């Protein structure tokens, strides 16, 4: 999915939604290369959107906090190997996550997303970003800096409009 298609999908899903009812959830390990995509995007969003949470590798540990925010939309952000070019994005429903199987947080992410959808009635989905490398070592691949900056800007625009 290219950035323009993602912007359209976000505009459609966020139409008429108050910014304070959108919760962005970054999933990932900052010590495993591009697995840090989710937390890196959250860093860019802080101060621009009401609710941007870095949940590390354990989204299930933050479900109570997320529920207290009374969200109508919950957007998870994570590295996801879907066979695209590094930095490309895809929008994934919770029931589709296991099909990809390459997220290091696959099962806990699917469970957390399903649980939050049932408990809050919110629209819940994942924006997966294709990593270049996942493994030991801090810092994102240089090729991902522009794509995740573009994604962060697209999210801010979609939430604020």
Automatic annotation (TrEMBL):
<dbReference type="GO" id="GO:0004190">
    <property type="term" value="F:aspartic-type endopeptidase activity"/>
</dbReference>
<dbReference type="InterPro" id="IPR004420">
    <property type="entry name" value="Pept_A31_hyd_mat_HycI"/>
</dbReference>
<dbReference type="Pfam" id="PF01750">
    <property type="entry name" value="HycI"/>
</dbReference>
<dbReference type="GO" id="GO:0016485">
    <property type="term" value="P:protein processing"/>
</dbReference>
<dbReference type="InterPro" id="IPR000671">
    <property type="entry name" value="Peptidase_A31"/>
</dbReference>
<keyword id="KW-0064">Aspartyl protease</keyword>
<dbReference type="GO" id="GO:0008047">
    <property type="term" value="F:enzyme activator activity"/>
</dbReference>
<keyword id="KW-0378">Hydrolase</keyword>
<keyword id="KW-0645">Protease</keyword>
<dbReference type="InterPro" id="IPR023430">
    <property type="entry name" value="Pept_HybD-like_dom_sf"/>
</dbReference>
<comment type="similarity">
    <text>Belongs to the peptidase A31 family.</text>
</comment>
<protein>
    <submittedName>
        <fullName>Hydrogenase maturation protease</fullName>
        <ecNumber>3.4.-.-</ecNumber>
    </submittedName>
</protein>
């Amino acid at each position: 999915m290219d950035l323009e298609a993602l912007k359209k999908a976000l505009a459609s899903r966020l139409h008429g939604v108050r910014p304070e009812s959108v919760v962005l959830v970054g999933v990932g390990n900052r010590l495993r290369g591009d697995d840090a995509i989710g937390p890196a995007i959250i860093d860019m969003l802080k101060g621009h959107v009401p609710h941007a949470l870095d949940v590390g590798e354990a989204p299930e540990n933050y479900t109570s906090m997320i529920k207290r925010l009374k969200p109508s939309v919950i957007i998870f952000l994570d590295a996801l190997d879907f066979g695209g070019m590094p930095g490309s994005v895809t929008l994934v429903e919770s029931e589709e996550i296991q099909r990809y199987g390459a997220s290091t947080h696959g099962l806990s992410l699917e469970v957390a997303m399903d649980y939050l959808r049932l408990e809050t009635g919110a629209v819940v989905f994942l924006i997966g970003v294709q990593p270049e490398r996942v493994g030991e070592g801090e810092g994102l691949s240089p090729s991902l800096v522009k794509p995740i900056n573009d994604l962060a800007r697209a999210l801010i625009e979609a939430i604020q409009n």
